[in-house]
């Protein structure tokens, strides 16, 4: 598939999830981007590390169970900070971040599907979250000015993008000096067999588009980031297996947390990045 075909397929998949019109023709219903009922969505979120209190704090419909981890747990967000969420979906992580940064802060969600944006804006309105906004755009070309964000979040979205290096270049551009990445995503741990690599549905299933952690580290370094950490979560094996039952994908991909800092204002960056032992001692 070429880049345009992949993007069109992903856009259709996630638009269908947001609109509630998803069918088996648009991908494997057991994948990480599956349509699920509310109890199943909450169960997935709890497995990914969100707390019952966090789930209770957001409107019904904000959590679609589409992630592969909890970037909030590594973001160390503080009141007054500006946060950007790449692939913000129905607004789940944005609305949680809004509570952490407070009215003195701001959260910007970016998504490429009109249906997700409509859902996210409705959820923000229901919560009365005045410090959140959602913008239409591709995460390879963010509709955000240079040096805007203190923190960039993303949850299981970058693996869906063909040009991942460009995503990290854009993240670097948008972050302030000393700003930090806090990302949950999927990485490739072993080369995919030909049948899995050629399966179009597994692109939307957060499998076929995953890159090896060493490539992710190289792209981040080339973009200019420092204090790079890609932590592969071995305990995600059981969760990954549910995305395509019986296909053995858990032998080839795993969830991971990705952290990095844009150089500058080093002292502030070290204090802000959770567990950044490489610069904080």
User: What's the CATH class, please?
Assistant: Alpha Beta
Which architecture would the CATH scheme give at its second level? 3-Layer(aba) Sandwich
CATH topology: Rossmann fold
Distance between the termini: 45 Å
Order of helices and strands: HHHHEHEHEEHEHHEHEHEHH
Global structural class: alpha/beta
Number of strand elements:
8
Number of domains: 1
Question: Main β-sheet, in a few words?
Answer: 8 strands, mixed
Unreliable spans = 25-31, 267-281
Mean of the pLDDT scores? 86
Number of helices: 13
Question: Level of helix content?
Answer: 25-40%
How would you sum up the global shape? Answer: globular
Strand content: 15-25%
Topology:
Blueprint: H1 3-19, H2 38-47, H3 52-56, H4 72-75, E1 82-86, H5 92-101, E2 106-111, H6 114-127, E3 132-136, E4 149-155, H7 164-174, E5 175-188, H8 194-197, H9 201-204, E6 211-212, H10 213-223, E7 226-232, H11 237-241, E8 253-261, H12 266-272, H13 277-280
Parallel strand pairs: 1-2, 1-4, 2-3, 4-5, 5-6
Antiparallel strand pairs: 5-8, 7-8
Helix pairs in contact: 1-6, 7-10
Descriptive terms for the model:
281 residues, eight-stranded mixed sheet, 8 strands, 13 helices, single chain, Rossmann fold, globular, alpha/beta, 38% helix
3D structure, described in words:
By secondary structure, the protein is α/β, with parallel strands linked by helices. It has one domain (3-57, 66-274): Vaccinia Virus protein VP39 (Rossmann fold, 3-Layer(aba) Sandwich), CATH 3.40.50.150. Helix content is 38%, strand content 20%. The protein is built from 13 helices and eight strands. It has helices at residues 3-19, 38-47, 52-56, 72-75, 92-101, 114-127, 164-174, 194-197, 201-204, 213-223, 237-241, 266-272, 277-280, and strands spanning 82-86, 106-111, 132-136, 149-155, 175-188, 211-212, 226-232, 253-261. Strands 1, 2, 3, 4, 5, 6, 7 and 8 form an eight-stranded mixed beta sheet that branches. α1 crosses α6 and α7 (164-174) crosses α10 (213-223). Mean pLDDT is 86; it is low at 25-31 and 267-281.
């Amino acid at each position: 598939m070429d880049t345009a075909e992949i993007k069109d397929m992903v856009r259709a998949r996630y638009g269908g999830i947001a609109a509630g019109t998803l069918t088996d023709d648009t991908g494997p219903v057991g994948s990480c981007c599956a349509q699920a009922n509310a109890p199943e969505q909450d169960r997935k979120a709890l497995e990914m590390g969100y707390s019952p209190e966090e789930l209770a704090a957001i409107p019904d419909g904000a959590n679609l169970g589409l992630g592969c981890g909890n970037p909030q747990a590594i973001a160390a967000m503080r009141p007054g900070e500006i946060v950007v969420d790449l692939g913000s979906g129905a607004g789940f992580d944005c609305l949680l971040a809004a509570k952490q940064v407070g009215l003195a802060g701001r959260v910007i969600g970016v998504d490429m599907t009109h249906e997700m944006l409509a859902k996210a804006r409705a959820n923000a309105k229901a919560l009365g979250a005045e410090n959140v906004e959602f913008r239409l755009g591709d995460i390879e070309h963010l509709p955000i000015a240079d040096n805007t964000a203190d923190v960039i979040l993303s949850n299981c979205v970058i693996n869906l993008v063909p040009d991942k290096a460009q995503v990290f270049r854009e993240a670097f551009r948008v972050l302030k000096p000393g700003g930090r990445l806090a990302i949950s995503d999927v990485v490739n741990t072993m080369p995919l067999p030909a049948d899995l690599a050629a399966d179009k549905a597994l692109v939307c299933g957060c499998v076929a588009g995953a890159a090896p952690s060493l490539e992710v580290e190289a792209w981040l370094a080339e973009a200019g980031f420092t204090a790079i950490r890609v932590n592969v979560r071995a305990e995600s094996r059981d969760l990954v297996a549910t995305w395509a039952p019986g296909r053995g994908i858990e032998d080839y991909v795993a969830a991971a947390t990705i952290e990095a800092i844009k150089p500058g204002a080093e002292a502030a960056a070290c204090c802000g990045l959770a567990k950044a032992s490489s610069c904080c001692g």
